[in-house]
Amino acid sequence: MKARVKAIYNQISDDLKNRIMQGKLSPGEMLPSQSQLAETYGVTQMTVRQGLGTLVEDGYIYSVWGKGYFVAEPTLETGIINLPGRNFFGQEFTPMMNEVDILRADQEIADKLAVIVGSKVIRTQLTLALGDNPVALDCRYISYRKGEPQLENELQYADFPQIVARHTNSVVVKSTFSIEAVHLNEIEASALETSPGALGLCVEQILYDVNGKPLGWSRMVCRSDRYKVSGVAQSYSGKV
Amino acid sequence: MKARVKAIYNQISDDLKNRIMQGKLSPGEMLPSQSQLAETYGVTQMTVRQGLGTLVEDGYIYSVWGKGYFVAEPTLETGIINLPGRNFFGQEFTPMMNEVDILRADQEIADKLAVIVGSKVIRTQLTLALGDNPVALDCRYISYRKGEPQLENELQYADFPQIVARHTNSVVVKSTFSIEAVHLNEIEASALETSPGALGLCVEQILYDVNGKPLGWSRMVCRSDRYKVSGVAQSYSGKV
DNA sequence: GAGTGGTCTAGACCACGAA
DNA sequence: TCGTGGTCTAGACCACTCC
């Protein structure tokens, strides 16, 4: 066993964290002041602040100007979800077939990408499979700005935000997504080897650049008996 | 107009952030060292570190021991989603009817809550509505440990994690959730004023305490034509 | 005015990576 | 060995809150 040296500020934050988790410090309760903690632990104010800082980041406590630090209420109102990114292809799913073409935007595409009807748009279509079983149909639209979509083979490996970034010369910094239940239509059903009207889950995602301009739109339709969305929510962001 | 004084470390982080967003600093590129930055901005290393710290927290850069700071690759693989918490009742939806009872766990409940079959379990059932239109059926199970479920009226106002915490004397620190498409059964359909077999979205959530023990299980079934799940993903956590 | 959090300095020393 | 990031000190001053 090696006596691992731990930074003092980590010892302080761990100590306070434990007291919070054990209920010795209750939500809403005020912590000792920075100067008191500094004296208690025999360190300077800056070191104490560093420890308190990590607790603030992780959501255990918060500070009020001129008053003090207080123990936060644990909440679970937001969750984190894995989106169809790079790992989606690499690890879980394998793309079975893909198609890339350029088309003119119809009304729906124009709305989603905030371009005028008739604009050039790059479309990619994939079938995602788990082993030999097709699970999802994936259709993506990128507003066409520069460069040719000569990278058919690259498309299935890189993740969508990266492809969009390359084609639009913009960085994707935000995306919105929605998840809804749908009935599969004939095309989707036959591609996913099931019957029309079967239960499906549709995950839609729109990518935006820094200025809030839509750069890409993806729509994935899954067989709901083979895939469901899952995620985690934690009241404290740090490792417990 | 008031000339707002901004902290030096914020000026530094803003400056670097702009250079990253404008592409003057590319992903993978190394930043000037702490001492170089200190000299450039005419401040001490500690002040520079504070500025770099916020950029690390927000995911713009990362540091490598003994080497330097590097510009991070933007990723969008995880998203944040709003879960049925307090705001779910308070703002969007109104609970129309509720029911509270105690029952013995069947196999399914026992599995979810990690208790033995036949254990006492508290069950609450709500109908959630948007205006006059019923949108979702919500059913929640709490492993019964102490205290009586005397708080029928309180149940519809507090959020689930809080109720669970009060009944189990434990803090809810984690939850997992899943979202899947379902067909509504007769009971659900009639409660939601639609026909059996209609499209539904089912959001399931399990709450855990610090030791990973399940404390509660909730299952919400929505009319998919009146509700869909949505969320946001951002590559940088700070405000841009 | 006393107590609090927030910023900043000018040093010091340690741990790590690469040459 | 040198340059890098990571930790820490012993002060100082400012801004805010409450009495």
Automatic annotation (TrEMBL), chains A, B:
List the top taxonomic levels of the source.
Answer: Bacteria, Bacillati, Bacillota, Negativicutes, Selenomonadales
Gene responsible for this protein: nagR_2
Write out the transmembrane intervals: none
Is Isomerase among the key words of this record?
Answer: no
This chain belongs to the protein called HTH-type transcriptional repressor NagR
Name the UniProt key words of this record, in alphabetical order.
Answer: DNA-binding, Transcription, Transcription regulation
Which Pfam family, any one of them, does this sequence belong to? GntR
Q: What SMART domains does the annotation carry?
A: HTH_GNTR, UTRA
In what residue span(s) does the HTH gntR-type domain sit? 6-74
Q: Which PANTHER family match?
A: MANNOSYL-D-GLYCERATE TRANSPORT/METABOLISM SYSTEM REPRESSOR MNGR-RELATED (PTHR44846), MANNOSYL-D-GLYCERATE TRANSPORT_METABOLISM SYSTEM REPRESSOR MNGR-RELATED (PTHR44846:SF1)
